[in-house]
Amino acid sequence: MKPYSRKEYLPHLKKIKNWKVLADRLLEKEFKFKSFKDALKFVNKLGEIAEKNGHHPNILLYDFNKIRITLYTHAIDGLSLNDFILASKIDRL
């Protein structure tokens, strides 16, 4: 399987809000919470969804209440449909 090209990923990107593609291979979004506790709850819920889907994002918790999620399909070193599906599920948290 090859990673999505720009032409292939753009229709999927339009369906998810405030996500951006970096270097045509990473899908990324930042979240901000009221407190560290709220941010941590989000990370734990996200972890459960990621584990159920067998698709694991990079998660950065910084400045006590901000989270940056980066998705890509490790096996192909780029974007696949699974990245956009997981992004959509994360948005529903």
Topology:
Blueprint: H1 6-13, E1 20-22, E2 26-32, H2 36-53, E3 58-62, E4 66-71, H3 81-91
Question: Total number of β-strand segments?
Answer: 4
Can you identify the CATH class?
Alpha Beta
**Please, how many domains?**
1
CATH-defined fold name? Gyrase A, domain 2
Alpha-beta classification? alpha+beta
Quick summary of this structure?
This protein is of the alpha+beta class. Helices cover 40% and strands 23% of the residues. It has helices at residues 6-13, 36-53, 81-91, and strands spanning 20-22, 26-32, 58-62, 66-71.
Report on this model:
The chain is an alpha+beta fold and 93 residues long. The protein has one domain (6-91): Transcriptional coactivator/pterin dehydratase (Gyrase A, domain 2). It is 40% helix and 23% strand. It is built from 3 helices and 4 strands, in the order αββαββα. The protein has helices at residues 6-13, 36-53, 81-91, and strands at 20-22, 26-32, 58-62, 66-71. It has a 4-stranded antiparallel β-sheet, covered by helices on one side. A hairpin with a 3-residue loop joins β1 and β2 (26-32). The longest helix is centred in the middle third of the chain and has 18 residues, at 36-53. The radius of gyration is 13 Å and the shape is globular. The N and C termini lie far apart (29 Å). The model has no long low-confidence stretch (mean pLDDT 96).
